[in-house]
Amino acid sequence: xxxxxxxxxxxxxxxxxxxxxxxxxxxxxxxxxxxxxxxxxxxxxxxxxxxxxxxxxxxxxxxxxxxxxxxxxxxxxxxxxxxxxxxxxxxxxxxxxxxxxxxxxxxxxxxxxxxxxxxxxxxxxxxxxxxxxxxxxxxxxxxxxxxxxxxxxxxxxxxxxxxxxxxxxxxxxxxxxxxxxxxxxxxxxxxxxxxxxxxxxxxxxxxxxxxxxxxxxxxxxxxxxxxxxxxxxxxxxxxxxxxxxxxxxxxxxxxxxxxxxxxxxxxxxxxxxxxxxxxxxxxxxxxxxxxxxxxxxxxxxxxxxxxxxxxxxxxxxxxxxxxxxxxxxxxxxxxxxxxxxxxxxxxxxxxxxxxxxxxxxxxxxxxxxxxxxxxxxxxxxxxxxxxxxxxxxxxxxxxxxxxxxxxxxxxxxxxxxxxxxxxxxxxxxxxxxxxxxxxxxxxxxxxxxxxxxxxxxxxxxxxxxxxxxxxxxxxxxxxxxxxxxxxxxxxxxxxxxxxxxxxxxxxxxxxxxxxxxxxxxxxxxxxxxxxxxxxxxxxxxxxxxxxxxxxxxxxxxxxxxxxxxxxxxxxxxxxxxxxxxxxxxxxxxxxxxxxxxxxxxxxxxxxxxxxxxxxxxxxxxxxxxxxxxxxxxxxxxxxxxxxxxxxxxxxxxxxxxxxxxxxxxxxxxxxxxxxxxxxxxxxxxxxxxxxxxxxxxxxxxxxxxxxxxxxxxxxxxxxxxxxxxxxxxxxxxxxxxxxxxxxxxxxxxxxxxxxxxxxxxxxxxxxxxxxxxxxxxxxxxxxxxxxxxxxxxxxxxxxxxxxxxxxxxxxxxxxxxxxxxxxxxxxxxxxxxxxxxxxxxxxxxxxxxxxxxxxxxxxxxxxxxxxxxxxxxxxxxxxxxxxxxxxxxxxxxxxxxxxxxxxxxxxxxxxxxxxxxxxxxxxxxxxxxxxxxxxxxxxxxxxxxxxxxxxxxxxxxxxxxxxxxxxxxxxxxxxxxxxxxxxxxxxxxxxxxxxxxxxxxxxxxxxxxxxxxxxxxxxxxxxxxxxxxxxxxxxxxxxxxxxxxxxxxxxxxxxxxxxxxxxxxxxxxxxxxxxxxxxxxxxx
RNA sequence: GCCUAGGUGGUGGAACUGGUAGACACGCAGGACUUAAAAUCCUGUUCGCCUUAAAGCGAGUGCGGGUUCGAUUCCCGCCCUAGGUACCA
Length: 1084
Fold this sequence. Notes:
This protein is α+β, with helices and mostly antiparallel strands. The chain is globular.
């Protein structure tokens, strides 16, 4: 291929426009950066976080990381690596859908338009991406594999014994051979217990239901931000203070059945993995905190009977409801009986009047819940659930747990089961009733209930003897049973008060006010047996740990405040605790006091001894606790991956793998249906095999990005998400550059999926991203003009320069930064900016209008957006690339300021001039370079190498400038120097160097694969050095001396020097410090 | 509150392992070239004092201490800024 370009560069100054266009075309046509998977070269994988293609296009902040990664990739290529440096688009997402709702345009179309614009902008910057590997998450050929991974997750469970994910088939084998007993899994809390025989007798549906409790992706009821006015679910960041960000409509918390990912199974591995990856410490800290592992202990406090004698052993017969809630429950129960569902009505006909031989009650209150049906004698609760448990206020799992605690067993049926086969359901109930052992003596008495133990989680089990009270969350399930009649009113009031408070909480300041209420009950200390009062308080959260804490006022500030406020004892436990009458002292130093069997021990010893003791007594054990929750994996949106699932009898099943991808169906509108179903509910005739309902929610934004780095390895493969050979060659990402805003989202989910894929043997590495650099944000730098206000407070058409504004009454207006240079306003541009400014008058300072400055987020509304296209048009891509790096350290956030760009542009012109004579004729000499010239070159060879390796791009740009300044001073135009300099600079400024590379007589396109010049120390060795001579550490003068001299020789020379003697003031120094090659210091 | 990063001229920043603080660049000031402007080149530019000048003196890396012959760098206490996070037991 021959390029016919005018030979302009031989007769003209640096023409960046033509040069850059020429090489961008050349690289594209010749596929210069196409990467092969089969080479003998070592691999290096450099990845950027791929962008979401928004309608606004790129601003100068976006390419910062791409430039850095491109420099690094080009550098590694010169160093002989086979570098994978791909780019793609995270193209599913909300903005496109929002736009579609507003305009009716299909999101695929607007996404395509945006991608094309992004591509054009990226192409302008001279990146060495291999575009043949581009991925788009919204492309069916891509999301086919996202769906496929979802299916693998659905078909897997987490075996705690092998500590990895395994196919469900291994779980089945375990159930069939040993029942549920020996299965150790990360699973739902409400899993059933059964023997192998019982398992085999279970129906297919019962088995499926049980699997769902183990699968790594499963259905769970979760709370979402539901906005009735918009008819949609909102993300957390779309909700501002309880209202939707768009439109300001009220948002409510609603429970919905949602797909979830069992990321908690991997909590510990996600934590451990952080030890072995080279990520910024703050980012790792964020993930650690997000996972929130606390190593502690569960301690069980038994409860002492709370009711007065006589009452104590009385059976409650059928009065099983919680007395506090009775009025409410009674009303609910009545309402429910009237509004019973069809299925409940059907079933009741078979259960009523002891037809089964047992007395069954319906809508019967137990504690704080209403059971659909209950047989009190046998202690069996029968629940009929809607498919999505729509009626459900409480969490089913919690409910079952509570009922189990009181000795009830719970069996559940779905509406469909009952409706389709009422008789067999009734028969199952009868069987159960006949086989169940039943409650001993019926319903538990208060004292029996009191035998329930209160579990607390603590990270400081060593403080056990400093416990002076227990605090449980107001929502804790045992609150009703623990409340004595005398305290009923107080407790009820407090619960009401907390409920109100949580609503107002957001408005209120964060100042801590102490509040709580005494339940009237006591617990026994597990070791000493003393009575400990039980309180409720809202500083204890129901959702963390066990929802109950043992309060140690001497060691915990919140407990301390509580104790002071309610006049509870504060027990010192360590001899090192100080001032505990002033505040809590959480120290672990010193020896224990007042602490029974651990008196005199240290923290470490005490913890070990106590846990052993608790375990021996069966009242506690060591326990790990995590803050991490399972991740919701569903959005009630259109523009996302469809979930490859259909429902049969209310249970989810996967579609056949051969049927992938499950394509996103066409819909008439991108809004929810009238019944509040997600937009996919609008799709016509969209049924699995024309009969079963598909899942209507789509996958969240992070689905497609949780594995995309593997797709780049083998982007066109339609047999697998990537070929095994490609994966074993590229392995993992060596360098990942992106924004730290993805710290706990994308970066955690990606690690999770990677570990899962590794467990199943699809990939080889435990961690996907070996090294990660988080780039700083580029902020906007806004400019302001100051408009005079007249006496009546009205705006005038006169504007005053920033330096004089304090002499007048003014208001500040944002002014477009593109009509401001070095904070000086271009008055003509300003006048033509808006009609109202056409006749504007100005009060100038020193003949100029100076604008005010503020650093803000870069956004259109603040008129501070700088488009990279404008910069490249004016200065070229090479200048922009260098300038973005020159701005400062990559990891630091900084405002964009175009002010310094001239300096970088001048540098490139100076560099160009080295190769040309005064009339811009290409002019290079083959003479042997001088020592000084070699020195300048080898300094930059080493410096650029060191700086790139530590990602200090700003300092290397400075060093390039120094080098070119030196060579200019030396009037160097020697090939031996300049050709190597071209290679070293090429990763930063690829266009100008390609041009000069060919002018030097090299083959076009070969620069990218040249060899990085070898550094030779010989050129930098000096035999003399201008030693700084300081007196008492203050630098006074430099003294040229040979580097071969040793300490006594130097001392002699220095003390004989006339200039030095001036500083000595006639004294002789007490001591002379000499560091070879560094410094001489005279101590007087 | 806690975690993390940071605080250096008018500005962006440099000084990598305790050894010449302010490299490089912008801006500004003065000058050369030009009819003029742009571009380019040269000189100066931390602050204060002193000086016709050359030179010199003093202070100085958020504040206060400490270690050291020597501290932007290490230690202790405090203040401020940015990002993250929270009644997490």
